[in-house]
């Protein structure tokens, strides 16, 4: 048999295999799940096991039977519908998570197999496991009033404008009396909601501050380091340092729209002033261009130092147009190698945040 025939046989064989695999993939008849991921939040060891329930709808013409449901951890057990699910019928999977001594965020995998899908559909149970500390004095070293915290500040991390960010902060009541937040919390800004779990928090009891941060209500973008005040029924007030970075949320852009949406382009993003005297201000202009077919809006200009002054002639740039970003750096009181950052927030949905780095060697 010559090489060309062997080559032809291989092509036919692999072609048939790909058709067969594609057919198998298309033949998978899955349940339509209400949610494929459930986040059960903070799980405190002393409260015991936590349960969640997944609901699946059969939109297929064939009857479906759940044949096997397995998890990737002994800490997670399941109970599921044993009855046959006819078309438009709903089945459920109850998942029970039993916390252990391993703390931190978790994501447990649940594989669901049926008579119509031998490969298995995948569900996820997520949360934060909070084991009970052996030494409360060491576990909560930072005291604010009678409350003990693990850290000296609350870091909310990245907050997006499409939905509130929820943070669970461990606390311990080292006081001799129960503590309970007032219902109004007049000192809090409207973009923050704070609850205590449990409420009231008894003396020598561990609990949580549940903080909800609404990025859209914040009405601003960028990094924030602020202090919030919480009021308690006994008229005690405590002040907590809180850090966050707020970003505007944009939906994913289809490939067909990438040249239509606003697109921000910088003439340069790395500025090196080289050696400069500390007594002299230096300036630089960077051109911001709009490569898209819709108006580009500059939402905000920010820097990590008050020594940088920024100005731009226009904050809305039409298609194919450009605007000059004028930068002034005052090195007064500084010495040595220096790095500063400028952050540009815009409505470019593909790259909404751009950074300009400024380098210098101050003499």
Please explain how this structure is put together.
The chain is mainly β and 363 residues long. The chain has three domains: 32-130, Immunoglobulin-like, CATH 2.60.40.10; 136-247, Immunoglobulin-like; 255-362, Immunoglobulins (Immunoglobulin-like, Sandwich), CATH 2.60.40.10. It has three helices and 25 strands. The chain has helices at 3-26, 136-139, 215-218, and strands spanning 32-33, 37-44, 50-57, 66-71, 76-80, 90-97, 104-114, 117-130, 142-144, 147-149, 154-160, 165-173, 192-197, 206-213, 222-231, 237-247, 264-266, 270-276, 282-290, 296-303, 308-312, 316-317, 322-329, 336-346, 353-362.
The total of helices stands at 3
Number of domains: 3
What coarse outline follows from CA principal-axis ratios? flat
Provide the CATH architecture of the largest domain.
Sandwich
> Share of helix among residues?
under 10%
Pfam family, one: DUF1573
Protein name: DUF1573 domain-containing protein
Organism: Shivajiella indica
Keywords:
single chain; Ig-like_fold; Immunoglobulin-like; flat; mainly beta; 5-stranded mixed sheet; DUF1573 domain-containing protein; DUF1573; 363 residues; 5-stranded antiparallel sheet; 25 strands
Topology:
Blueprint: H1 3-26, E1 32-33, E2 37-44, E3 50-57, E4 66-71, E5 76-80, E6 90-97, E7 104-114, E8 117-130, H2 136-139, E9 142-144, E10 147-149, E11 154-160, E12 165-173, E13 192-197, E14 206-213, H3 215-218, E15 222-231, E16 237-247, E17 264-266, E18 270-276, E19 282-290, E20 296-303, E21 308-312, E22 316-317, E23 322-329, E24 336-346, E25 353-362
Parallel strand pairs: 2-8, 11-16, 18-25
Antiparallel strand pairs: 1-3, 3-6, 4-7, 5-6, 7-8, 9-10, 10-12, 12-14, 13-14, 15-16, 17-19, 19-23, 20-22, 20-24, 21-23, 24-25
């Amino acid at each position: 048999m010559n090489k060309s025939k062997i080559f032809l046989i291989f092509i036919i064989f692999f072609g048939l295999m790909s058709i067969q695999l594609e057919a198998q993939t298309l033949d998978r008849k899955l349940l339509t799940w209400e949610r494929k991921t459930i986040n059960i939040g903070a799980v405190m060891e002393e409260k015991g096991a936590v349960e969640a329930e997944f609901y699946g709808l059969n939109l297929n013409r064939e009857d479906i039977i759940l044949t096997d449901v397995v998890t990737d951890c002994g800490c997670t057990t399941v109970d599921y519908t044993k009855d046959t699910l006819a078309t438009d019928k709903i089945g459920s999977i109850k998942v029970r998570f039993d916390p252990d001594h391993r703390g931190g965020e978790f994501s447990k995998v649940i594989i669901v197999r049926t008579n119509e899908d031998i490969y298995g559909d995948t569900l996820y149970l997520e949360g934060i496991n909070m084991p009970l500390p052996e030494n409360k004095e060491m576990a909560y070293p930072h005291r604010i009033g009678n409350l003990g915290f693990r850290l000296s500040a609350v870091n909310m991390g990245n907050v997006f404008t499409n939905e509130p960010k929820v943070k669970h902060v461990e606390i311990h009541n080292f006081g001799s009396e129960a503590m309970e937040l007032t219902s109004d919390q007049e000192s809090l800004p409207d973009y923050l909601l704070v609850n205590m779990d449990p409420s009231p928090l008894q003396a020598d009891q561990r609990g949580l501050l549940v903080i909800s941060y609404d990025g859209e209500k914040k009405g601003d973008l960028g990094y924030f380091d602020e202090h919030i005040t919480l009021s308690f029924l006994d008229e005690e007030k405590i002040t907590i340092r809180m850090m966050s970075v707020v970003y505007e949320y944009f939906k994913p852009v289809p490939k067909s729209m990438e040249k239509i949406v606003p697109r921000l382009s910088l003439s340069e993003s790395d500025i090196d002033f080289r050696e400069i005297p500390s007594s002299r201000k230096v300036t630089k202009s960077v051109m911001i261009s709009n490569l898209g077919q819709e108006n580009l809006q500059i939402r905000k200009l920010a820097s990590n130092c008050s020594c940088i002054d920024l100005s731009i002639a226009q904050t809305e740039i039409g298609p194919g147009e450009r605007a000059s970003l004028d930068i002034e750096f005052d090195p007064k009181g500084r010495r040595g190698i220096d790095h500063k950052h400028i952050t540009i927030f815009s409505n470019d949905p593909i790259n909404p945040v751009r950074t300009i780095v400024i380098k210098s060697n101050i003499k």
